[in-house]
């Protein structure tokens, strides 16, 4: 597998290319929490919601996740076989490529995602990734390591489009990554499941994380679909521009 190092060569043609369409999918409690204060794996939604997440993932060319959600939830980011078959019928690959975002880069190569070869894994991180992690992870994934403390998410999306042919991204959070995408105006659609619980807790993250700061500008959503199944409400919003 490849390790790709990127400096600040972002002014070239790739920046002019259209970025992929970004769809984020989340479940939250009635009081807006996406997890507990202990960041335990999300298990407050129904089987229908879990299927909904798989279906959304299966529609995309790439599924993108932040390092903490990957580590906490230890997900493989695959899709069930019937959704794989449906993708092949649609002339897509068997499953979306799996994309991990991390600034520090200390990603455990024993995580379940690396034990499944359903689709290629691409890691966007920085040169802060320790050398020993670079060596291990480069055997399991393609690494894109850039300068700076954080991953430039706009540049990441351009790379996904240009180098991997990605037109649709399914972002599965978590809230920190989602907030960064929102701050850079990089989200096009939000699929939101409201589950019939309340957690409370100032230390339990909401959809936009734990930051006390307002977003640089309010994000205006346009409701395009609303479905009630059992006691959950499945909302689809387009982000207004
Ligand atoms: N209810 C839901 O639908 C839902 C969905 C997803 C997740 N969750 C929950 O959310 C919790 C995790 O949330 P979280 O906000 O802490 O985690 P997160 O967004 O999954 O991950 C945050 C980490 O991702 C990396 N990251 C994000 N943006 C980056 C950027 N621009 N550049 C470089 N690195 C970036 C950093 O990794 P490094 O630390 O490696 O630098 C950062 O610490 C988990 O408990 C999970 O279960 C809930």
Walkthrough of the structure:
The protein is of the alpha/beta class and 241 residues long. The chain has a single domain, classed as Dihydrofolate Reductase, subunit A, CATH 3.40.430. The chain has six helices and ten strands; from the N terminus they run E-E-H-E-H-H-E-E-H-E-H-E-H-E-E-E. It has helices spanning 47-59, 67-73, 81-89, 131-137, 153-164, 175-183; strands at 3-6, 21-29, 62-66, 97-101, 121-126, 142-146, 168-171, 189-195, 221-229, 232-239. It has a ten-stranded mixed β-sheet with strand order 1-6-5-4-3-7-2-8-10-9. Mean pLDDT is 93; it is low at 7-15. The protein binds NADP nicotinamide-adenine-dinucleotide phosphate. NADP nicotinamide-adenine-dinucleotide phosphate binds at residues 26-28, 34-35, 39, 41-42, 66-69, 72-73, 101-104, 150-151, 153, 172-177, 180, 205, 209.
Question: Structural class, judged by helices and strands?
Answer: alpha/beta
How does CATH name the architecture?
A: 3-Layer(aba) Sandwich
CATH fold topology: Dihydrofolate Reductase, subunit A
CATH superfamily: Dihydrofolate Reductase, subunit A
Beta-strand portion reads 25-35%
CATH class descriptor name: Alpha Beta
Low-confidence stretches at least 5 residues in length (pLDDT < 50)? 7-15
Give the distinct bound molecules. Answer: NADP nicotinamide-adenine-dinucleotide phosphate
